[in-house]
Structures are given as C-alpha cells and as structure tokens.
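call fold(seq) -> tokens
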Amino acid sequence: MHDVKSDQTAGNYRHEDADNSTSLAAILTTQASRYILISAWALMLLTLVDFKTTVIWYVLTLAAGIARSLIEKRMRDQQQNQAATKNRRYALVAMASCSFWAAAPILAWTSAHPFGQAIAMLYIVTGYMLAFAQFRSTPSNALIVTSPYGVAFLYCLFSAQSTGAFLPMLAVIPILVSALTYVLMLASLTRQEVARVNHDRSNLIDELTKARTAAEHASEAKSMFLANMSHEIRTPMNGVIGMAELLANTNLNSRQRVFADTIHSSGGVLLTIINDILDFSKIEAGKLDLENAPFDLRATVEDVAALMASRAQEKQIELLVRFQPDLPHLLVGDAGHLRQIITNLIANAVKFTPEGYVLVDISGSRDVTDAALRISVQDTGVGIEEGKVDEIFAAFQQADSTTTRNYGGTGLGLTISRCLVEAMGGEIGVSSVKDEGSTFWFEIKLPVQAEDDLIWQQSYEAGQGRVLIVDDLDVNHQILSELLESWGYNTDSALSGFEALSMLKSALAQNNPYTLIITDSAMPEMDGYDFVCQIKANPTLRSIPVMVMTSFDRPGAARRFREIGIDQYLVKPARSALLHQTIVDLLQKHDANNDFNIELSCNANAQSAAIETPLSKLRILVAEDNEVNQLVIKHMIDPNNFDVEIVSNGKAAVQAVEEDSDGFDLIFMDVSMPEMDGYEATRILRKWESESERPHMPIICLTAHVMEADLERSREAGMDDYISKPISKNKLDRVIERYLCAGPNKRERLSA
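ret:
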C-alpha cells in the first residue's frame, strides 16, 4: 500500500495516490481467478474452432498472463511513492495481455459455427466487464486496457457489413458506450467520495496529531505546575511542621502540648497528601524512572517498620516483621520505590486496624542469580467487603464513601503502589474478609548480589542455648522462634506468665535450665512487669537473663523495669542486627559471670547512635533565602555542638566560603534563591576547591522539589546529599551525624 504523506504541500496528490495504490493492491489479488477465466474461454473456444487453434490461443494467452503476473510481482516489490505512474505502466502491461484475450472473439467470429458471432460478442462484453472491474476508478487506464476489445469489435463490425448482423451491431454501439459511460461515471463519483472520505480522514489524523501534541504539552505543563506548587507548598510547610516540632520540645502545659502536637500531626497528613498527588502525577505523565542499585532488603523493611512503629503505638497495635531466614537480603533494585510501596501498605494496614496487629511477612525463593520475593502485609482490621476488593487499587477509590470521613487519605496510596509494582514487572493483590482483616501482597523478582553472609551473626556461638519466649500472641512466637533457631538457639514458647514460670521451674528440676528469657510486656492475667518480678523474687531463677520486648513504649516503662533488675528492654519491631547483638551481649556477660544490670537500650525507633559531643564546635553554613526556614534550621541544630552561619543566597554562600580561612565542616544549600541559586553556587565552590586544592566540603541540598530530575540536577552540580522540605529534626540530625560524626575524617574534625 502506498504511504499517505503527511506533508501538507502534497495534499492535492496524496488522496489520488492512495486510491491508485488501493486499486493496484486489488488488482494484484486477482491473478488466480485470471487463469481460471482463460481456461473457461479456451473451453468455449474449443466448441467453435479446431483443437490446434484453440491450444495455440490458450498457450499464448496463458504465457501472456504469466508474464503479466511476473511484472506485477516486480512492481509490487518495488512499489514506493509513484502509484499513479505505476498504475499507468500496469495499464499498458494489461493492454498487452488483453491483446491475446481479444484474439478469442476474432477467432469465434471467423469460425463457421452458427453461434460464433454471438459468442464473439459475449467475449467482447465479458472482456470489457473484467477490465472495467479492475480499472473503473481510473477511467483513462480503463480505456487503455480495453482498447484491444474495441479493435476486436470494430473488426467484427466491418466483417458484418454485407450481412444481416451489421445493423444489430450498430445498434449495440450506443448501448455499449452508454453502459461503459455509466460504469465510468459511477466509478468517478465513487472515486470522488473516496477522495472526500480520505480527505476527512487526513484532516482527522492531523487534528488528532495536533491534539496529541497539545495533550503532551499540557501534561508537561501540568507536571511543571505540580512541581512548582510542590515547592511553593513545601516551603511554608517547612515552617509549620518545623516550628511545631520545636514548640513540642519546649516546656508546655498539657493543653499547649495538645495544640502543638495537633499542628505537627496535621502538617504531616497534609504533607502525605501532597506527596501522593505528586507521585500520582509523575506516574500518570509516564515520568516514573526506576533505578537499579545494590540494597539491603532486610534493612529496608526494618527501616520502614521502625518509622511506622510510632503510628502503631499510638493505636496500641503490634507491628511485627518476619523475614524468611534463608532468603537473600542483598539484592539489586530500586530500594526507594520499594520502600515507598511497603510504607504505603503498612500505613494502610495501621490506618484500618483498630486493635490486634499488623504483620509484614517477607518470603520467597531464590535461584543462582535471582530472588522471587513475596512481601505481604497482614492486619486484623476492618477488612473489605467482597464486592469492593476489585476496586481497591483504582485511583481515588476507597472501600466506601465513609472511609475518607472516618480515616482520611486521598485513596492514591494503593494506586501508586500498584503502578510501582507493575513498573518493576511484579504483581500486587489483596485478600480480605469483612471485619476480620486484610492481606495486601506483592510479588517481584530481583537480582541477587554476591553471597551475603551475615558477619554480625557469626560473632557468637549459640551452642545449646535455650531461650524461652513468653508472649500471648502466637504470631510473635513464630517470628522469634524462627529467627532465633536460624541463629542456632533452641526455643520454647509460653502463652502467659503463669505457664512460663511453670516451664522455668520444670527446666531447673530436669537440670536443663533456660539461658535466656524474652518476654512481652503487655499480657493478660500476668503482664510482663509482674512476670519479671516473680522471676527476680525467686532465688533459683533470678540469675537467668531477661529481655523485655514491648510494642507500646509508655513513658516511665523502661525505668520501672530497670528498678526491678531487668537486663534489656527493646521496642518492637526490633531490627534483626540489634536483637542479635543484644542477645549476644547478654549471653556473653552471663557466661563470664558478670553483672547483668547493664544500661537499657534506647527506643528501637531511634536506633541510630547519638551524635557525639565534639571537642570543639563544628562549623555549619546554611544558605537559605526564606526567613522562616532560616529560623527553623537554626533552632534545630544544637548550638552547644555547632556554630551556624546563615546567608540568604548562593552568591553570599560562595563569598562566605572563599573568605573564611578556617572553612566550614558542612554546608546546607537551598536550590531556589535569588541572585544565585544553589546549583550554580555548588558548581562554583567545587571548581574553587579543585583550583585551590582544598578538601572536599559536604554540601547538602535543601529542596522542596522532589522530582527525580531535580535530584539528578543536585547530583550533577556536585551536591553530596539532599533533604526534602519540610525538614524535621530527625532528618537534620541523621545527615549531620553521617557527614560530621562518622567516617574516616571524624577524629580530625572533632579534634580540630
């Protein structure tokens, strides 16, 4: 088929070319029927003339047909743009072939058969019909092809001058001409209609192309608008959330604290909505980019669980994490988006679970190069009605109309998770029973890194150590037993303090005592505090190390347990590495007959080490044009440990660095500032460092832009890390700790 040109200057010709091309394509499909017609004509001719004459006509006509077919094939293979010219060439080829066909009516006319003349006219009319059937859309070509039949008719007319057939044949001429004219006129009208339809189609294609281009531009404009709005909203949000957080850390009465906490939590909800809308817009615009980088799956899941634990504690539900022991944890993939999916699923589960627990279960299998993962989040919440399950992953959809009023949210979290999972080549789904709970799961396949032996697990030989797990929840028994047994410990479980005391005494009587007790703090009948008191009051049991694990870190709970002689106190969900190291420390001290009354560990949600107090203050430069943000950052950074200098634009930041002989230990650089933005300032500073052979200064990007392109710009400019606004004190402390209180240069910095 001839390609329709999109060039508007060729608009007057492309419709004709398309019609001609269509005609040619139709012609090329009639070759088989052509040979059948030649054979039918030969059989009829055989009844009129001798066998030899018929055979000669048949062979010559068949050969001409074969030659015509070969030429057609060559034309079809070489067909490009000149369809009209090729149809004219084809018409000439067809005329040559029809010359052999036109010999049949002459042979029939000159035969002595009484019906010879009638059959000759039948041949001529049939020939015209066949030719016009193929070329009616191109009248000039139709006349060229049928000219041999006209010659044959004239021959028969002149031969009939002295016979009675002359006058009937003269009468046939106007009838034949009228019929052929009618066919050509109808064909011309049909062609004009086809041209009009093609013209309308072409206009429609052009309009659709313009509409698509306009839609693409609108999508780009929308993405830019959302990015700019995100920046403009996040900047004041930084002041709202940051100041609320600082206010909550001051001496407030109970009423004032409620107000401050409400401002902070409401700001967090608003920020979540902003993030959901921005993520959804990126996915909708097709701007979702996935990264492939090494990451630790176990650490990723435990990080998310630690961040979400506070929400679970507020509702007094347990947040549990189970990681299949033999599953590889060092993988290659997009850890950031994977963390986002798990966060969405856990947040959704916690939101809709009024009591009970939320279990994050990581299971799967592996082969030599890949790990097939199934990550599920199970809750004991309100569940989903059977008819609503299929709609739960649709955009802006929630289970019913009261969900938003009762629980809040945009209904985008699960939609974003589905898009992310599908972008990773995975599958996501849900099973749920109304009023019994739901299980959201997704399956993905990721490459495995090299052998991932856990060095921190090899620091202690468990031997025949026996651990008693005391918890009223079966799922906690399963998770802890599986984990401890993978480390080499023998475990037993008790569902209550009474049962545990009985098992402890029985083990002593059998001279096979337990080497460690891990107990939950919140249990019916006898809670963890009373259970530990019973142990410490018993002279035969008090020497056994006891670790208390709690899902509800109430104020003063750690102090109460310490007063009765507890050995360790951890908040669920505890990281595997922390749990392992804590157990190892306890058992090593027990083996050495040391005093087990050690200092309690801090809350598991703040498991990163505290920032060390330096011998001299470290210097931090903050480049930020917004006065509220300047105030927030200044008050979030500890003035006892750090000297903070604040400038209002990139130009001032460059000047401050170049003029300060002592230099700065860390720079926080906003990207959107007057006179000189943060990107340009960073490039100038990196060039200055290179030319003056100065040591590398960590530069941290402060940005309300969170599009991947914006973060890539910060990396290209030479920034080391970034903090997205609104800024929290935890974010700020972690970055300061990473770049100033850790690493090979720590000693030099602190002693400078």
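The chain has a mean pLDDT of 77.
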